[in-house]
Amino acid sequence: MQRAHRLHRPAFTLIELLVVIAIIAILAAILFPVFAQAREKARGATCLSNLKQIGLASMMYSQDYDERLCLQYYISGASGTAGGSWDVTMAAYMKNTDITHCPSDGLARQNNNKPRTYSWCRGPFGDTGVDSGIALAAIPQPASQIHITERPNYLNMVNFVNYSVFNIPTEMGPYPQGATVPSGPPFHSEGWNFEFVDGHVKWSRLEATIRTAGVTYPRTVQGTVASRSILGTMAVPGGMWTRDPDD
Questions:
Q1: How far does CA 141 lie from the centroid of its chain?
Q2: Quick one: CA dihedral 96, 97, 98, 102, positive or negative?
Q3: pTM, to two decimals
Q4: Contacts of 216 (CB under 8 A, 6+ apart)
Q5: Would you call 96 helix, strand, or coil by DSSP?
Q6: pLDDT: is 32 or 78 the higher one?
Q7: Which residue blocks in the chain are alpha helix, DSSP H?
Q8: What is the mean predicted confidence (pLDDT) over 178-207?
């Protein structure tokens, strides 16, 4: 009687198994950052879409109100108490306040209130950018004038007047309660997303939004007292931060 022979297949050795695990670990280390970058790209695209919708809401508002932008915020009551911010005024045009939050903004807000990532750019000195209720005709280059951009902040919250506006690029970084100096990197590939007065949006590095860093321009600012002049610095920027076409 012939004996049946079993087929013996060689098994993985311990060394071979370790090599396979090492290869998988190397591939994971290469691919995970790529996946993270892809996720951030998607968040950045959502942020740009949010700003685009806000810009369209602003344009629709201005068409209904004699070519004037809405107020940055308004005060109500004889005591001068705060009434509401621009996102309140434009709520009927935006339809959804969720678009005021960038998905990359994970900064916790005071009392866990609903976050608002974006703020209104008033420009240096608070009145050289997009003034409250300004006529569109008073902005010579609306495609070059920053209107609304990212300002993640502990106190930047939906329907909250404080931090709904800001003046200069150094106020844009996220920082915790009680901090006096902004800190933290930009959300989107070392840059921020911006919405301009004409409604278009784009990504830019901060240094590209001012005219020339460190250069003082011996000029006076349009619509301000003669003693004030724009500097080409982050603290007092020219360029896209003022409505003066010479900046």
A1: 21
A2: positive
A3: 0.78
A4: 229, 231, 232
A5: coil
A6: 32
A7: 14-64, 86-89, 91-94
A8: 83
8-state DSSP, 203 = E
Q: What's the rounded Cα separation, in Å, for the pair 52 and 58?
A: 10
pLDDT one-digit tens code per residue, 111-161: 889 999 999 999 888 888 999 999 999 999 999 999 999 998 888 999 888
pLDDT, residue 178, reads: 59
C-alpha 68/C-alpha 197 separation (Å) is 11
Type of residue at 32:
F
pLDDT digits 0-9 by tens, 209-224? 887 644 555 444 444 4
The first and second tokens of residue 196, run together, are: 């301009």
What torsion do the CA atoms of 105, 106, 107, 109 make, to the nearest 10 degrees?
A: 100
Q: Which helix (H) or strand (E) holds 148?
A: strand 146-150
At 161, phi and psi to the nearest 5?
A: -65, -50
Q: What is the mean pLDDT of residues 222-233?
A: 55
